[in-house]
Design goal:
Number of strands: 9
CATH superfamily of the largest domain: HUPs
Order of helices and strands: EHEHEHHEHHHEHEHHEEE
Structural class: alpha/beta
Number of helices: 10
Radius of gyration: 18 Å
CATH architecture of the largest domain: 3-Layer(aba) Sandwich
Helix content: 40-55%
Bound molecules: adenosine monophosphate
Oligomer: single chain
Distance between the termini: 45 Å
Amino acid sequence: MNKFDSLSDWQNFRSRLKGSLGFVPTMGALHDGHLSLIKQSLSDNKYTLASIYINPTQFNDTNDLKNYPQQMDKDIKILQEIGCDFVLTPTYEQIYPDNFNYKVSEQNLSKLFCGRSRPGHFDGVLTIVLKLLNIVQPTKVYFGKKDFQQYLLVKNMVEAFFIPTQVIGCENIRETDGLAMSSRNFKLCPEKRKTASLFYKILKDSKNPEEAIAQLKKENFKVDYVEDCWGRRLGAVYLDNVRLIDNIKLGELI
Ligand code: AMP
């Protein structure tokens, strides 16, 4: 696997690369959810590039950024083992020569759900994705439907700006007890990790969002939102200040 720390090295290399390129942007602390995207890209494309970059502009809470899990050496090993061709690990200075003076801002969907309680979050997400798509120039880019609102916003942005990349949505990968895999799960103590599995169960088993909210509160989750939209039930909660998000297709409800 080739590791690129320098954007210009990658861009030189990219200009000579022939054949389809799949791209999986990540913030590291890789788990099987990320790996499912990489596997999909490996099977769809001649080459696959993963990026590892903790994007500060999408964190509206400095503590959340400070505490975000980091394990670069382990991640590189995981990517090597799975057969990823290239990894890009840029710095803030390389990505933001403008110091985030220019940003992409969506006016509707980005203000709902996660956008309500995380002002500016999706400006940061869309800006980094646009920058990375311009740098990587992939044939296809892979996003997890675990972050369903993010997936829709990226898909719509790519259409809005005529970016010649296909956005592929991949299914939400779960732990055996149902909890959606997330780098943030590593932050939960064993007791809260056990409680966390109730999030998925309650989303799935409640008749409506109001019932889900009441059940979650009973189990001591701090609820940000549970709402039905796009044929899905979407939710975000906190457990000990760790933010968890999830969504299920309404057809999966019992
Ligand atoms: P992150 O490193 O959290 O920014 O995630 C990088 C990509 O992996 C995003 O497209 C996420 O939606 C995706 N992802 C994260 N967790 C999962 C999961 N449990 N299942 C599927 N995709 C995921």
